Amino acid sequence: MQDNGGLRRTWRQVLREAVLGARTDAKADGLANLVEPGREKACEWFGTIYPRHQVQLQLLHGESQRAFESQTRQSMRITIGCVLSNVLRDPRLNSEEPNRYVGDYLHKEISGLRARIDEDCALAVSRGINVGLTLGALISMVLLITPLLVGGAGLLDLVGIEMGCTDRWSLLGAFVCGGVGAFGAVLSVLVRLRNTGGELSRRRTNGDRGTVAPGQMARGMRHEGVYRVFVGWILALAVYFLLSAGFIKLFDMPATTVEICSGNTAGQGTAFWGFWCAVGFLAGFNERWAFGLLDRSHRPERHTPATAQASATESNST
Question: What is the pTM of this model?
Answer without folding.
Answer: 0.62
